[in-house]
């Protein structure tokens, strides 16, 4: 029994009366949204659909200049039922607000893509169900790593940009018969690009299962003839050390140990606020490469593995348009927010 429920003033939000699902998916409401949704609103909505859940802080990193301005707009999107939200209980109190796609947002995205809303596979109950998923914290952590990259790319003095960010589901659609990474990313820096598969470990998998992933990635390289590094993130340095021994042993037992470039990092190597920032000097390649001693920043990994295949050049700030979604699936968003009016340059 809950004997000391949190007071309303501590919840950080009020309960607002919102229209019914039938109302917000009707023509009148959708036409009204056409006049009020900005390109940034639509992009954020599509990002949330692609990655299932984003926190207020992550959304502010993606497209706003402050959390306060993001909160003001997110409240409007919530009241219009473009987005829904929940606030899970955390060990130290209440977690930040988490946003998922709502019925009006799903209808807007479907009409944008010329897809029948009933055939997209969207279900509001399933979208909200992630609030109770045992993998919620893992999903939020994976997304935080990429929203951090977008935030870096949006700074005035930036030297890099995120050119691809694939969700776990999108990776499964294209590679799931061989590997199932947590995400795929591509980062451009001073004319070079580094791409990677992300394996974010929360210390719940046995070491033998972690090591068993490397032969699968080798099989993917053989099938695609594309060498893509695999980056492992661990919660502690102790866990990283143990994993590196298991991963190194697995590579040395394979016929081609250099086929899959691997680097690792740990959360406790950096300040707590930066533990999911991949741009820092924190990545340690496995000793199967000729890289010098020490750790590297994300963009420096490009020269650690000079003989890997280079990603095909793509237009700046554009997603891989050659990869089309399956019939009935919505188009994935571009990895960077829109620019111009009501885009990332907007004051609010």
Brief overview, please?
The chain is an alpha+beta fold and 348 residues long.
Describe, in plain words, how this protein is organized in 3D.
This protein has 348 residues and is α+β, with helices and mostly antiparallel strands. The protein has 13 helices and 11 strands. Helix 4 runs parallel beside helix 8 (136-153). The longest helix has 18 residues, at 136-153. The N and C termini lie far apart (43 Å).
Task: Give the assembly state of these chains.
Answer: single chain
The side-by-side strand order for the widest beta sheet comes to: 6-7-8-9-10-11
* DSSP summary: helix tally: 13
Largest beta-sheet characterization: 6 strands, mixed
Supply the helix-strand structural class.
alpha+beta
Helical proportion, percent range: 25-40%
List keywords for this structure.
348 residues; 11 strands; disordered C terminus; 3-stranded antiparallel sheet; Arc Repressor Mutant, subunit A
Outline the fold blueprint.
Elements lengths: L20 H4 L2 H10 L2 H13 L2 E2 H8 L3 H13 L3 E4 L2 E2 L2 E2 L3 E4 L1 H10 L11 H6 L6 H18 L6 E7 L1 H8 L7 E7 L2 E9 L6 H5 L1 H12 L5 E5 L2 H16 L9 E5 L17 E2 L15 H4 L44
Parallel strand pairs: 8-9, 9-10
Antiparallel strand pairs: 1-5, 2-5, 3-4, 6-7, 7-8, 10-11
Helix pairs in contact: 3-6, 4-5, 4-8
